[in-house]
Write a structure and sequence with these properties.
Layout (H helix, E strand, L loop, with lengths): L10 E5 L3 E4 L36 E2 L6 E2 L2 H4 L4 H9 L16 H11 L3 H7 L6 H4 L5 H13 L8 H11 L1 E2 L5 E4 L7 E2 L5 E6 L3 E6 L10 E2 L8 H12 L21 E2 L6 E4 L8 E3 L5 E2 L1 H17 L3 H12 L7 H10 L7 H21 L5 H23 L5 H22 L4
Parallel strand pairs: 7-10
Antiparallel strand pairs: 1-9, 2-6, 3-4, 5-6, 8-9, 11-12, 12-13, 13-14
Length: 432
């Protein structure tokens, strides 16, 4: 719970990584800055002297034999955690493989080594690992067996390798620029809500910044969303359960109408009303609001997943338009798949008047629905306000040239666009 009140846009929390490391499906990378040993990029190296990291310099650590960029990375903060430990191991992985499975050990090993420090251990002990659930995953052996075997060779660790893996899976945040993760000790305590009151993003210097999207009262729980809210509950809720091992009970995930949006609702084949899941906490049947026809949950989930895969595949404007026409008869007008298609369509280049009118309607639909799913100063709202301005002003110029509106009316439209940009800038605040 928040000990303070925050206004929308205020910074709620900043945090720095306790651990940084490669992902669990990684090719050989520099163990300090995570640059690929074949495509090391000096501009993204995290050493004190990034310019020293280049493809030509990529080499092996003189102590442990694992890949590093150069001396700067060999002595870097992150590699220093495990270097002496790796140096004691008899065997080295094959660093030429497309996926070096032993790299799945590095992040977890760093967690286990750092846990030897009392002050670090106190922070890590509070983190959940969901180890009992992770070992049941079908691909657990493929992803983690070699990494866990490596960690098992290390004596004197306060945590098991499985505990380290669990902390990685449950709490680590993906890097936007590398196949790697960060573990933020305080940030990890924040709860998830699909309709969150805060958003987060990486900030220069490996810091994560949490900013209020809406006004937050003293005593309110600080929440973030672990994923983009573009999926309807029919796919989002099981995705959260599979990814983070809990059943979300936020207001969106427990309302059959999804806060009145009918974001997952499908058209009833019998009466043309809408079919929704009656009890989202109990996996009960889907039922038509009017004629009470029922469909089992598995069928509806499979249908939504199949259609979602089809929507992701369409790329050309005519394909998107065809898919919108096809699905409009099957889905509620606010359905998340139709919204996704509209979001694709508005990003194409449009010059015809009819397209501009359609685009203005589509962007208005997107903003209307997104404001319910993502209230407040969100990045999506900022981007969509910019798109709204483009369609509105281009259409306005066309109408002005045709004599359909006066200059005064167009200026009023332009002032509205300026107001939209001002609000959009608030949504983007802190990104640069």
């Amino acid at each position: 719970q928040s000990l303070h009140a925050f206004q929308a846009g205020e910074v709620v929390l900043t945090d720095h990584p306790l651990v940084e490391g490669p992902g669990n499906r990684s090719a050989a990378t520099c163990l300090n800055c995570l640059a690929s040993v074949s495509t090391a990029d000096p501009s993204s190296c995290s050493t004190t002297d990034p310019s020293s990291c280049s493809t030509a310099d990529c080499a092996s650590c003189s102590r442990c034999g694992w890949p590093v960029c150069n001396a700067a990375c060999e002595n870097g903060r992150w590699h220093a955690i495990e270097c002496s430990t790796l140096a004691k191991l008899d065997e080295k992985p094959d660093f030429q493989l497309e996926v070096c499975s032993e790299y799945s050990a590095i992040f977890a090993l760093r967690v286990c080594i750092l846990a030897k420090q009392k002050e670090v251990r106190e922070k890590l002990d509070f983190l959940m690992d969901h180890a009992d659930d992770i070992v049941k995953e079908e691909n657990f052996e493929e992803l983690w067996s070699k990494g866990l075997q490596l960690i098992a060779k290390v004596d004197g660790l306060p945590y098991s390798g499985l505990r380290g893996v669990g902390i990685f899976c449950t709490n680590a945040v993906s890097m936007p620029h590398r196949n790697g993760r960060w573990l933020y000790p305080t940030f990890s305590f924040l709860s998830h809500s699909c309709v969150s009151n805060c958003r987060f993003y990486p900030h220069p210097g490996q810091m994560v910044l949490v900013r209020a999207q809406v006004d937050i009262k003293c005593g309110d729980e600080i929440t973030i969303s672990y994923l983009e809210p573009g999926l309807g509950t029919v796919l989002r809720k099981p995705y959260i359960e599979n990814m983070w091992y809990f059943s979300c009970t936020c207001t969106l995930c427990t309302d059959p109408t999804e806060l009145g949006t009918y974001f997952s609702a499908m058209t009833c084949r019998k009466c043309r009303d809408y079919v929704v899941q009656q009890n989202l906490l109990a996996d009960e049947v889907w039922q038509c609001n009017k004629c009470k026809m029922t469909v089992d949950c598995k069928t509806m989930h499979t249908l939504a997943k199949t259609l979602h895969n089809q929507v992701k595949q369409v790329a050309e404007k005519n394909e998107v338009e065809g898919m919108i026409e096809k699905l409009s008869d099957l889905l509620h007008p606010n359905h998340f798949l139709l919204l996704a298609l509209k979001e694709k369509w508005v990003k194409f280049h449009h010059t015809e008047r009819q397209d501009l009118e359609t685009g203005l309607k589509y962007v208005s639909d997107i903003i209307r629905i997104r404001k319910i799913m993502e209230p407040g100063l969100t990045l999506n709202l900022g981007e969509n306000l910019k798109l709204l301005n483009q369609f509105m002003l281009n259409l306005g110029r066309m109408r002005l040239s045709a004599g359909e509106i006066s200059k005064e009316e167009f200026m009023k439209m332009a002032l509205g666009a300026a107001s939209n940009i001002k609000f959009a800038n608030k949504c983007f605040e802190g990104l640069s």
